[in-house]
């Protein structure tokens, strides 16, 4: 209970003496809450793709992919969502999908 009173006093000092019911119930944020560590941030699942036919990636220095190759090469290379959509759909020079997403 003493901790609660300390928090109220601290809140009064910060707000110039006014403490509302909502402010009194609000939890105090610690430095850790404000600066989360790398371990506490959720990891995004890396999407994986494979070539469904042979093609030359004209937007990546003419890199050649054969059917079954993983895309992109190297696997840790960042490819824009726009470029992925081009290759996943018929919105490319071959007018057909050249990659597919795998699990």
In total, how many beta strands? 5
Largest sheet: 3 strands, antiparallel
- SSE class: alpha+beta
Q: How far apart are the first and last residues' alpha carbons, in Å? A: 52 Å
What does this protein look like?
The chain is of the alpha+beta class and 103 residues long. It has two domains: 35 residues, no CATH class; 55 residues, no CATH class. It is built from four helices and five strands. The chain is rod-shaped, with a radius of gyration of 27 Å. The two termini are 52 Å apart.
Brief account:
The protein is α+β, with helices and mostly antiparallel strands and 103 residues long. It contains four helices and five strands, in the order H-H-H-E-E-E-E-H-E.
List the helices and strands and how they pair.
Layout: H1 2-15, H2 21-25, H3 31-34, E1 48-51, E2 55-57, E3 63-65, E4 70-71, H4 81-88, E5 99-102
Antiparallel strand pairs: 1-4, 1-5, 2-3
Region (Disordered): 1-46
Biased composition (Basic and acidic residues): 1-15
Question: Can you tag this structure with a few keywords?
Answer:
5 strands; 16% strand; 103 residues; single chain; 4 helices; 2 domains; three-stranded antiparallel β-sheet; rod-shaped; alpha+beta; 30% helix
